[in-house]
Structures are given as C-alpha cells and as structure tokens.
C-alpha cells in the first residue's frame, strides 16, 4: 500500500507539472458544461425564459448559427495568434537570456488557464451549434445556451486583452529575474525553517559503513516523498542518508542512499519509490537551480552578442540576496520523525561549492569589465557584513575575493581602474579577521 500511495503522489506531482494538464481540465469542463446546458434546455429552460424574460433568449435559428459560427472562427484565430506570439517571445528569451528559463515561462499557470478557457469555450460553442435543429418551433431552439455562449465569447475577448498584457510583462528580463529569485528564496526559507540542524547533527550516527542502495533509473533527482520515507524508517526501525543532492542528474546504478540496516529487494524497491525523477529541472523543487539560472543570465548578458551589463548587474544583486539567505542555512539537513529524532540525513551542496560555482563563470566572462569586477567585490563585501556569517563562510568569501582581485590584476591594464577595484579591498579590511587575508595591489 505504501508503494502504491507513493507512486500515486509522485505521478500526480509530475502530471500537474505538464503544460497540457490544466488546459485539458478546462476542455473537459467545457464539454461537461455544454452537456449540462443541453440537459437544461431539454428541461425547458429556454421556454421558461421566453415566457418570463424574452429579452434574454435568442429565438432565431439563423441568428444563433451565425453567432456561434463567428465565435468558433474568432476563438480559433485568437488562439493561433496568441500562442504564435508566445512561441516567438520564448524563442527571443532563449536567445537573449538562457534556454534554461523556458520551462518556468511555459509552465506559467495563468497562461495555461487562458488557453484552457479558450478551448473550453470553443468546445461549448461547437456542441451548442450542433444541437440547433432545423425547425420553426422556437421552443426547440437552445436560446439560453446560445446566450451563455455569447457571454463566454465576450470573456474570451477580455482574457485575450489580459493575456497580451501578461505575456508582455512576463517576458521582461526584470520580471524573469525576480520570478527566479522569489522561487529560490521561498524554497530556501522553507528549508531553513524545517529542522533544528545543530542538535540533530550531533545525534545522527556515522554513515560510513552503512549499506548503499543504487538507483534504478536515470534522470534529475527532484523530489522526495518525505511522509512515505519517514513511514518506511519507522516500520523498519532504521535511519537513511540521501547520498546525492536534489537537482543532481543521476545515472542508473549510482548509489543514491545509505541505510543503517541491510534492505531486501522489496524494501529497496519501496525506498526507491520515495524518490521522484524528472528530465527537467524545477526551481520550486531545488533552490540551487535559481542560482544556476541567474548566473547563466548574467553570463549570457555579458556576451559580445548581447552586451547588456545592466542585466548582469541586476543578477548579481539578486544573487547577493540569495547568498545572504543561504548563509543562514547549514551545509547539512535532517528530517525528524514524530519524536523529533533525526532519521533522514539529506546531502546538500555546501556553501563553498555553491559560491565557487556561481563566481567562477562570472570571473571567466567578466574579468575584463571593470564595473562587473567592482560589483562582484561589492557583493562579497555585503556578504561579509552579514550577521549570519560563520568563520568558515568568512574564509570562503575572502578566498573568492582574492580570486577576483587576482583576475583583475591580470586582465585590467589601466592603473586607475585597478585602484578603483582594489578600493573595495580597504573596506573589506575594516571587517574583523580580513586585515591580512586579502592580496595587495602592488606586485
């Protein structure tokens, strides 16, 4: 039962992430609504309205057919125009910013709902049009259903205006950067609030001699069914360590977890069903991807073909805020059971690896730009001033600042520019512990 429930939860999570899921629900809803209106017509809703409120009912068959045919053709035209424009904008975003941001733009639920409403209205109008029979009896004409179709078509026009406004804003680089930042920030805050990691680390046993469990498929390790995994630990009276961080691309046969007891094949299968895999990366599941995407946008903006340092500077600003939040999280995470005992240890990317992963490409592609070097050093200075900086994090930040200063000395030939870059070094030296840690300008 545990295996089936876990598989069902992961299946639902993957299904709802598909671009066609919500439009399909709307289309099915439009079909059901059409049949419901036809049933109401069979019960005499139009004849009742003709007798009591005739101004609400269309009682001419030719007029009804003409209106519905016009609405069907118009809605199809709007759909083609709307989503042709979307494809053009997505192609522009991929070329100018980064291809990795496309899944976030495509999965926008607002745009999916607009598409779904288009399709639902289209299906409804087709269904009502087919129900109009060639007769002179006005009571057999689905007049009220036609009126509802007119109202729905007016809403389609309103949604088309909203769609144009929404997509024109969503494609703006500032909106894209802010969206990535907000998703990564939300995920980080969730992880920070989850566990009391200091106390749990001291109580969690050494895992060196634990039994490894190999993964049985290939893909991006995205989600963990925590409830099912906790239940498995309780049933087997064991503890588990996740060996790879979420968001990692895992090949079949690679150890993904360690268990304090040796598991048989059935229990290994139950354990593996608690892990969700995908062929794409999602920021809401893995905050590291937020750092990756912001870094890639900044690097792409500094390419000669784009030449947009303003966007790169904005990305560094948001990265600085995310790093300041990441400083509040330990380099390890635990999940506790109902007795507040740590039974699951999660592998995470440590702060040193993360900050090097971000600044290494920035230094490689921006070391000839004085403004970008100055901005990166300012970001590190801002992080050094953070109240949550630990001793090891301070050393990591200083080492990264030294790497930037070294690149500046080799790439920047103008002495005045170098003095401006090294002026931030003096500010960093004012912080305790950095007086003798930063390299000098004189060579």
From TrEMBL:
Pfam families: DUF2254 (PF10011). The keyword Transferase does not apply. This is Membrane protein. Keywords: Membrane, Transmembrane, Transmembrane helix. The keyword Transmembrane applies. The chain crosses the membrane at residues 21-40, 71-93, 114-132, 144-164.
């Amino acid at each position: 039962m545990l295996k089936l429930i876990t598989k069902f939860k992961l299946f639902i999570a993957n299904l709802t992430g598909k671009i066609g899921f919500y439009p399909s629900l709307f289309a099915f809803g439009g079909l059901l609504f059409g049949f419901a209106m036809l049933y109401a017509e069979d019960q005499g809703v139009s004849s009742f309205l003709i007798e009591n409120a005739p101004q609400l009912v269309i009682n001419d068959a030719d007029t009804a057919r003409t209106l519905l045919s016009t609405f069907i053709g118009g809605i199809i035209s709007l759909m083609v125009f709307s989503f042709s424009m979307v494809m053009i904008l997505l192609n522009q975003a991929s070329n100018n910013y980064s291809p990795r941001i496309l899944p976030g733009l495509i999965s926008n639920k607002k745009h999916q709902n607009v598409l779904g409403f288009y399709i639902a209205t289209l299906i409804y109008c087709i269904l009502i049009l087919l129900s109009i029979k060639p007769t002179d009896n006005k009571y057999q004409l689905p007049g009220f259903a036609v009126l509802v179709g007119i109202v729905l078509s007016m809403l389609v026009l309103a949604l088309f205006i909203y769609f144009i406004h929404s997509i024109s804003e969503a494609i703006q680089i500032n909106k894209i950067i802010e969206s990535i930042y907000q998703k990564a920030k939300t995920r980080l805050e969730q992880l920070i609030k989850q566990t009391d990691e200091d106390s749990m680390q001291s109580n969690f046993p050494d895992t060196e001699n634990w039994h490894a469990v190999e993964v049985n498929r290939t893909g991006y390790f995205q989600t963990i069914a925590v409830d099912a995994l906790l239940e498995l630990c309780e049933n087997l009276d064991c503890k588990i360590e996740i060996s790879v961080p979420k968001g990692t691309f895992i090949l079949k046969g690679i150890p993904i977890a360690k268990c304090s007891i040796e598991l048989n094949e059935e229990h290994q299968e139950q354990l593996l069903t608690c892990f969700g895999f995908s062929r794409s990366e999602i920021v809401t599941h893995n905050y590291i991807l937020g750092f990756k995407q912001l870094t890639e946008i900044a690097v792409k903006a500094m390419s000669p073909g784009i030449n947009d340092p303003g966007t790169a500077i904005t990305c560094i600003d948001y990265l600085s805020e995310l790093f300041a939040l990441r400083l509040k999280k330990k380099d390890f995470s635990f999940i506790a059971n109902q007795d507040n005992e740590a039974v699951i240890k999660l592998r995470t990317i440590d702060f040193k690896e993360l900050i090097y992963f971000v600044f290494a490409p920035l230094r490689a592609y921006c070391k000839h730009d004085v403004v970008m070097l100055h901005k990166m050093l300012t970001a590190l200075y801002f992080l050094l001033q953070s109240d949550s900086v630990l001793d090891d994090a301070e050393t990591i930040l200083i080492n990264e600042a030294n790497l930037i200063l070294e690149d500046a000395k080799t790439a920047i030939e103008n002495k005045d520019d170098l003095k401006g870059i090294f002026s931030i070094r003096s500010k960093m030296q004012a912080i305790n512990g950095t007086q003798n840690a930063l390299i000098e300008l004189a060579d």
